[in-house]
Specification:
There is one protein chain. The chain has 3 domains: 182 residues, HUPs (Rossmann fold), CATH 3.40.50.620; 143 residues, TPP-binding domain (Rossmann fold, 3-Layer(aba) Sandwich); 115 residues, 3-Layer(aba) Sandwich (Rossmann fold), CATH 3.40.50.620. 25% of the residues lie in helices and 29% in strands. The protein is built from 14 helices and 26 strands. Helix 3 packs across helix 4 and helix 4 packs across helix 10. The radius of gyration is 23 Å and the shape is globular.
Length: 460
């Protein structure tokens, strides 16, 4: 069995999800080859993987590859994969740089092999996927995207460093105009520092929170719709699933609704209708299917968009980048423009956002949620630790909060979470660390732990 692991190095370090993909491959007992499309500076961090048991480590690096978007990246990796040979391909589910989670599904589509997304466990020829309780068979060929559930091993004391093979475009023979920035269908046209999520925090005690929540529930919802109407519109926009309809209606003169279907069926329907843009929901389903459809159509795809605008006949797609610290405006140079769009969480007026500080306390918070008529939400850290299901995840790689009151309990305030809180009218933070970042993104803050909040509601 041959396992090919596609990884990325950023800031001199292997990306966290990719490190887990390497470990997953090593645990499979396969002959492991590591492949990375990166600048020459990645050579030494990649070389360290030879001490862990990687059979080969190959660095793809050429000036013509610079600036490649996700589709062009997948095309370059596909060409290399065909040359190297494989039974399984493993990728980290996403990177912390862009959080698009598009390369894996695109690569599987270009190679024509099945995709197994969100691998949580690997054992005896089966894999367990995120959101599924029962394992499913693992048969080659297949591409696996791996979650952060495989901590990368340390090298053995007497293991020796091997060499990294360096391939340039002379090895792959791709057309230079089809590579890098020149061949990429998406392009960043502007970036700016993101300051939209800061709030002014008023200190309170946990004993004041029950009455405060009831007071806030009586207020009219102040937040505007997630996608305000664009003054200029596109003639025809397609929405894949009801969740993408609000965004499509904001930018389309005419909107067609497609039911969620297999990638090939969706690609055929899109080709027949020839829309100006196609919007998918940024759900777990949409993040796997949209990249596959884009790869089939050779179209640009922008992930996790939070705003859409039409200007001079072009759709401008706005999304957070670099962990939410900046906001980027992106255009697709192909027709149709394609994007996954953030979906609001609807339902309860109150959401209880739980972080790792509530680990092991889910029954008590479920009781509190039932008493308040609230819904439960979670940080990625809590989900990754097994303390909450993925469906509840709020943040850069989850859903967006939309409620009157969001109570953040035991959350540090990582930017990956706070960037998704702009849909909450009021944020109440509870954290024992008075210097926790969450207080800079809350309207009210209590310096206390989770048990103190439960006690304020009479729950032990």
């Amino acid at each position: 069995m041959r396992a090919l692991v596609c990884v990325r190095v950023a800031g001199g370090e292997l990306q966290p999800f990719d490190a887990c993909a390497v470990e997953c491959a090593l645990q499979s007992g396969a002959e492991v080859t590591v492949l990375s499309l990166c600048p020459p500076s990645a050579k030494e961090p990649l070389r360290a993987l030879t001490r862990l048991g990687a059979f080969r480590v190959i660095l793809l690096s050429d000036p013509v590859y610079a600036g490649a978007d996700t589709l062009v990246t997948a095309r370059i990796l596909a060409a290399a994969a065909k040359k190297i040979g494989y039974d399984l391909i493993l990728c980290g589910r996403t990177t912390t740089e862009g959080e698009t989670a598009q390369v894996g599904p695109m690569l599987a589509t270009l190679l024509g092999i099945p995709l197994l997304p969100g691998v949580m466990a690997l054992s005896d020829g089966t894999v367990t996927l995120r959101g599924q309780n029962a394992p499913c068979p693992l048969a080659a060929p297949a591409l696996l995207t791996v979650e952060r559930s495989f901590p990368l091993r340390f090298p053995k004391l007497r293991s020796r460093l091997g060499e990294v093979e360096c391939w340039d475009n002379g090895t792959l023979g791709l057309l230079p105009e089809a590579c890098g920035l020149a061949g990429s269908p998406t392009r960043v046209i502007a970036t700016r520092e993101s300051t939209a999520h800061a709030r002014t925090c008023h200190p309170i005690t946990v004993d004041e929170i029950p009455a405060l929540i009831e007071e806030l529930r009586q207020r009219d919802k102040l937040a505007a719709g997630e996608f305000p109407p664009s003054e200029e519109r596109l003639p025809l926009v397609m929405a894949v699933g009801e969740q993408a309809m609000p965004a499509a209606k904001a930018v389309g003169e005419r909107v067609l609704l497609l039911s969620q279907d297999a990638p090939a069926a969706l690609a055929a329907a899109i080709q027949e209708a020839d829309p100006d843009a196609v919007l998918f929901p940024a759900t777990a389903w949409g993040r796997n299917v949209a990249p596959a459809v884009a790869a089939m159509l050779g179209a640009g795809l922008c992930a996790d968009c939070t705003a859409l605008t039409v200007k001079d006949g072009s759709l401008i797609l706005t999304r957070p980048a670099r962990g939410g610290s900046i906001t980027a405006d992106i255009i697709c140079r192909t027709r149709p423009a394609m994007a996954t769009v953030r979906c609001e969480v609807t339902g309860a007026e109150v959401m209880l956002g739980l972080g790792k500080g509530t680990q092991g306390m889910r029954p008590a918070f479920s009781q509190l949620a039932e008493r308040l008529g609230a819904s439960l939400a979670a940080s990625r850290a809590l989900v990754d630790a097994g303390g909450a299901p993925y469906a509840e995840q709020i943040g850069l790689t989850g859903s967006k909060a939309s409620c009157k009151v969001y109570v953040a309990v035991g959350l540090s305030g990582a930017v990956q979470h706070t960037c998704a809180l702009e849909g909450a009218d009021v944020v109440i933070a509870v954290n024992p660390d008075r210097d926790a970042r969450i207080f800079s993104h809350a309207d009210y803050g209590a310096v206390a732990d989770a048990t103190a909040l439960l006690a304020a509601f009479g729950i032990s």
